[in-house]
Amino acid sequence: MAKQKITRVAQLKTPSDFTDHLDKIGTRLPFKTNLSKVGKSSLGTPLTLKSGFEIGNRFCILPMEGWDGTIDGLPTEHTKRRWQNFATSGAKLLWGCEAVAVRHDGRANPNQLLMNEKNFPAFKELYTDLRKGHEEKYGSSSDLLIGLQLTHSGRFSVPDVDRSRKPHTLYKHSVLDEKFNLAKTHQAMTDSDIDELVNDFVKAAGLAKEAGFQFVDIKHCHGYLGHEFLSAKNRTGKYGGPLKNRLNFLRAIVEGINATSKIPVGVRLSAFDFVPFEKGEENVGVPSSFQGRYNEAFGGDGTGTGIDLNEVFELLEQFEELGIELVCITAGSPYYNPHVIRPAIFPPSDGYLPPEDPLIGVSRQIYITSEIKKKFPNLVIIGSAYSYLQEWLPHVGEAVIDKGMADFVGLGRMVLSYPNMPEDILNGNKLVRGNICRTFSDCTTAPRTGMLSGCFPLDSYYKEMPEAAKLKEFKKKVRL
Ligand SMILES: Cc1cc2nc3c(=O)[nH]c(=O)nc-3n(C[C@H](O)[C@H](O)[C@H](O)COP(=O)(O)O)c2cc1C
Q: Which domain holds residue 280?
């Protein structure tokens, strides 16, 4: 596919410019031309959980790592600032804050946070500061729900300072093993390795509860270990094969938690996945080649780029049986198909030029999330991938909540550049154009070069760091 000219969202000045553009590119999005008056928007309506807890509004901050912890997995001043921005954004649901590893060998990078007994006091302090910050700004935090995302990075583990990949896999993968140079001698995790890991998740969940967090997310997305279980069809033994077995990892964790801390469990789920993409003609992303059917995409239809939600629906039925109420929908993986998980006009340095108008990627996630919500009205469903909507985020977000297409609008990259966007929307303030995320992807490119993440183009805190100049130099060399 040759390079296509993509119209920038900032050039779409009026609601009809935006909706005409959607028609032109052959996609659709729910859209509310005239936003509701202050106090009348569905985005400001509380949602009550089965427990009776009332979440104050329909904005959720999605988890976002900063690659800025210490090598022992403790938060730094940068981590604290980022989390504090989440807590004072105006959103009333903080989904996990960021991915926190349950043990050292599952860290995605040497600076990823790590939950263990030694680090526990720091997590308790982080949690306490989130509540305090929110209370100082809004008077009370009784309607703020805060979870912690727990993870093991599986085949994308890079735990040590030498930054070498130390993968943990579940089965032989027809594309990823080669793409990420898995050693021929590499052995997949054994069932007893997994049993041990289950205990680490249960322990970390107990510590999260003690620190104050109100739920834990057992991460099942983005190509990390939890997600890999969902596609482990060709693994034998109790953790692979039929869907029932592929869920045994989550089931064992939930049972362990129910027998100990009893902290509520949520799941962030890649509800669909595509085959890995790679650079094609003029660096535009194209699907990698594979033989026969591509069965390794959970929620895929076997073609590599199509979606079939039948297994996803079966999975969600099981979630309901396990007592899971909160589900955050996302898709794909930042490592092998970044345009699927986070639509962007400017790709990260290890990516490829967009193979489609990024609004198509936004629409894909919004409508798949809506199909899930329709089928599972009792689950609390959080949507993702709204940041690329830029100026039009409030118009799409309010329409989504009005129509019941999701329960929460999840915000990722947008809160790195514009932390209080939820508050501005709810207060009817004019959006601050200079803070709107334009998806430059520096928040991903910086960590790919070993630096911390942040909004280098728009947030003066990062703009002024020496890393900003290094990043500029690096980008000149790798420009796609
Ligand atoms: C810098 C960065 C860090 C991220 N870290 C995490 C993470 O720790 N856990 C997670 O589930 N998703 C993570 N994500 C994905 C986001 O939560 C979100 O799904 C994605 O950015 C799409 O939403 P958006 O369009 O609002 O940015 C990260 C994304 C970015 C850009």
A: 14-437
Strand, coil or helix: 215: strand
Q: Is 64 helix (H, G, I), strand (E, B) or coil?
A: coil
In a domain, 141, yes or no: yes
The low-confidence residues of the chain, meaning pLDDT below 70, are: 1, 480
The predicted pLDDT at position 480 comes to 67
**Token pair of 120 as six digits:** 């526990």
Structure tokens at 442: 């520096």
Domain containing 375 — which CATH number? 3.20.20.70
Instruction: Judge contact between 16 and 23, C-beta under 8 A.
Output: no
Residue type, 260: T
- Please name which of 329, 155, 162 lies closest in space to residue 231, comparing C-alpha atoms: 155
The total of structural domains in the chain comes to 1
Overall pTM surpassing 0.85 (yes/no): yes
Ligand 1 site, residue 385, Cβ cutoff 6 A = yes
Q: Is residue 5 part of a domain?
A: no
* 15-24 and 358-375 helices, crossing angle to 10°: 90
pLDDT at 4: 81
CA of 51 to the centre of ligand 1 (A): 28
Q: Is 462 in the pocket of ligand 1 (CB under 6 A)?
A: no
Enumerate residues 6+ apart whose C-beta is below 8 A from 216: 147, 148, 149, 150, 204, 205, 208, 209, 257, 263, 264, 265, 266
Atom 16 of ligand 1, residue of closest alpha carbon: 412
Question: Is 457 inside a domain boundary?
Answer: no
* Ligand 1 neighbourhood includes 91 CB (under 6 angstroms): no
| Beta carbon of 101 within 6 Å of any ligand 1 atom | no
What pLDDT sits at residue 3? 78
Buried-exposed string 94-128: b where 16+ CB fall within 10 A, e elsewhere: bbbbbbbbbbbebbbbbbbbbbbeebbebbbebbe
User: Under DSSP, is residue 423 helix (H, G, I), strand (E, B) or coil?
Assistant: helix
Residue 1: per-residue pLDDT? 66
216 lines ligand 1 (CB under 6 A): no
Q: What is the per-residue pLDDT across 13-43, written as a single tens digit (0 to 9) for each?
A: 999 999 999 999 999 999 999 999 999 999 9
Question: Does ligand 1 lie within 6 Å of residue 414's CB atom?
Answer: yes
For ligand 1, atom 31, which residue shows the shortest CA distance? 413
